[in-house]
């Protein structure tokens, strides 16, 4: 009977292990793969939207279309989506304007037919995709397989009405899977390995634990003594000792197996971590590890190191030798990095990164870049296994204090290779020394301000037609001392960009909003706060905002105004509308700030229905001398009046301007002529 029990337990363990293996293979692994692929697609979609935003911005600021096309062509040639994806542009007639991939240079896109559907690529599918605001997926060929249209592609479509341009991405879906290739195999191999280990442990337990128990029970069953005899006869010390020894052995085996299992789990966890975050060939950390390492860093500079003409090395010496070159290159970079206290990662293929998270001094960073760019100039890579020397050249792409350091370094690397430069610094029209120097100075200045609680809200009054204060706009300042020890207040244009890059912006805004909301009790006027669409998208910012608002009662919330910057950076009006609805339900008023300079989509204004429209100061500034500004302001006022939206005019710098916009029908006024920003509020 006991043997049957142990047999059942054994079968239950086997079934459980098989169930676990099926779960990993058919559920967990595909889920992980799909999640990583979807994440990459979302990231590349954001990259595409940024490129579209840059093109739209350039189109508004450019008067020469030929120069604009050259400028955009240069931009698109430096942008790669996913692994090989490109962006091309054509007009509504199907004429190709820009094609960085040269795929459509000799073709009339309006006549191209999708072989699998027989639909026209441009006239039907791409226009349909734009109108429905959805991704467009189709099957296409490849240069090396021109007759087989079996490769899935994905495209996103945007349209610039002013230029009559369709801006379209062209990416093979398999490009996204290259970021996660091997994940399924990795998980499967680990699962099989874990299954084998657990099976071995199960056999070990059976032999070392269950067998002694069976033997012990068998010995016990041999001792068949009548009850009365048992009571009359002294207990056998030998039998009791035997049982005690068996139980002690059992306990020892259980404890030993528990420790063995813990050791195996720790070992396998370490192996999984190494496979996910370490490059198997060079033992360097990989791209995923770099992203984890820098995600919470205040300041990051990255230099991507690309081995030039590496394909030639593979063709001339073979792939195995190419791998040895990569290993030796990694060793040389590691040795070099130890002198500057930086870290080395292998990003992919023949591209490495050298990362500084500690913000070394600008003079030292200059020396660092200079030495890195010439590191392999007179130093051959020695392949000891073959006893040969191979000379290599490298190209650097450098990103310093950027919001997305890895991507911007990639853009810089492409620019360096295209222009045949030894290295290229992203945004290198700015002096590298000054960028580092400014970042260090203001990061420390902001850190001290946050620590010393010297972030100060200033209030600029807003007046009605009778020149009575009706509300205050909250502005950010940092209290500081000048060279003579006098108290001064620093303006945001000096430090706000650095605050965003060094991830100090949230703390700054939190202090200003918290202090301004506390000042609500000191006035009966409204208080307004400036919010950007980026703030609205920031989950941490919104969470911080809600915590501050929770301290305010519903009556005082009706005196709060959110001024939302109107610009072409608003990529999703649905998110904006949801945000406005959430806070409008709490009694908070909504204003559209800087109206007339951004996208100015009146259709969206009809949906949002703000309480106020604030006309941008650039239109008010010269309204008394510029007829175009006058007509624009007049149109905005008439539009707002029809919707019963109050109009606020900024930059009232003279009595003449005040009288002029007052006659046009402006409801409220703000500017230095009427009142300057001040830390005091009434």
Write the layout of secondary structure elements.
Blueprint: H1 2-61, H2 65-77, E1 86-91, E2 96-99, H3 121-132, E3 136-140, E4 151-155, E5 157-160, E6 165-172, H4 174-177, H5 183-222, H6 227-232, H7 237-277, H8 287-294, E7 301-307, H9 310-317, H10 319-340, E8 343-348, E9 351-356, H11 362-373, E10 381-383, E11 388-390, E12 394-400, H12 405-418, E13 423-425, H13 432-452, E14 455-463, E15 469-481, E16 487-490, H14 492-501, H15 505-518, E17 526-531, H16 533-537, H17 539-549, H18 554-557, E18 560-565, H19 573-584, E19 589-595, H20 602-608, E20 612-615, H21 617-621, H22 627-642, E21 646-649, H23 655-664, E22 668-669
Parallel strand pairs: 12-13, 15-17, 17-18, 18-19, 19-20, 20-21, 21-22
Antiparallel strand pairs: 1-2, 1-6, 3-4, 4-6, 5-6, 7-9, 7-12, 8-9, 10-11, 14-15, 15-16
Transmembrane segments: 6-28, 186-207
Organism: Poseidonibacter ostreae
Keywords: Membrane, Transmembrane, Transmembrane helix
Q: Overview of this structure, please?
A:
With 682 residues, this protein is α/β, with parallel strands linked by helices. It folds into four domains: 2-34 and 183-218; 38-176, PAS domain (Beta-Lactamase, 2-Layer Sandwich); 287-428, 2-Layer Sandwich (Alpha-Beta Plaits), CATH 3.30.70; 436-670, Alpha-Beta Barrel (TIM Barrel). The protein is 52% helix and 18% strand. It is built from 23 helices and 22 strands. Strands 14, 15, 16, 17, 18, 19, 20, 21 and 22 form a nine-stranded mixed β-sheet that branches. Strands 1, 2, 3, 4, 5 and 6 form a six-stranded antiparallel β-sheet that branches. It has a five-stranded mixed β-sheet with strand order 8-9-7-12-13, sandwiched between helices. Helix 1 (2-61) packs antiparallel against helix 2, helix 1 packs antiparallel against helix 5 (183-222) and helix 5 packs antiparallel against helix 7 (237-277). Keywords: Membrane, Transmembrane, Transmembrane helix. Residues 298-429 form the GGDEF domain.
